[in-house]
């Protein structure tokens, strides 16, 4: 074998070794990448579970200090709703949010919006808009106090179909009987096409 062939074989061997090492390195990198992805997926799933648990706990233990105060999202929805009273704007809002919007509308003397939050189910409609507007008036400061400093707020749904809700609460500003204790206030709502609306005479 001449020197030229020997050099060629040596060079070829070196190339093969380098190529093998490169492939081996790539396999290791792919393996490490796969392990990293699996680890990230496990962590992501853990975060999803924690978020789900947090949401469930919030739904159960959520409290509202003042029913006269709208959250940023509720305020956005309120303004959006009173633009043209599109009922779909209220879709997916909880009954407590509709209660707060109703109280807030009274507070700012927007009786038109307040009426639009009532149920339109003919079986439960008790008055026309004209009758309601003619008799509407803003609650006095003392009357609105019962919607502030709220505690022991509970939301009860009808057992049959969950189409009716009754929200009860106590207020630090409300009536307190020496024997019976703090007075329990209540507010009734019902669903129109799966959207929460206020029942007529909701606090009677």
List the helices and strands and how they pair.
Blueprint: H1 3-61, H2 72-84, H3 95-107, H4 111-116, H5 129-134, H6 141-144, E1 150-157, E2 164-171, E3 176-177, E4 181-182, E5 185-192, E6 195-198
Antiparallel strand pairs: 1-2, 2-5, 3-4, 5-6
What does this structure look like?
This protein is α+β, with helices and mostly antiparallel strands and 204 residues long. It has two domains: 57 residues; 133 residues, Nuclear Transport Factor 2, Chain: A (Roll). Helix content is 50%, strand content 16%. Strands 1-2-5-6 form a four-stranded antiparallel sheet, with helices on one face. A two-stranded antiparallel ribbon has the order 3-4. The radius of gyration is 32 Å and the shape is globular. The termini are far apart. The N terminus is likely disordered.
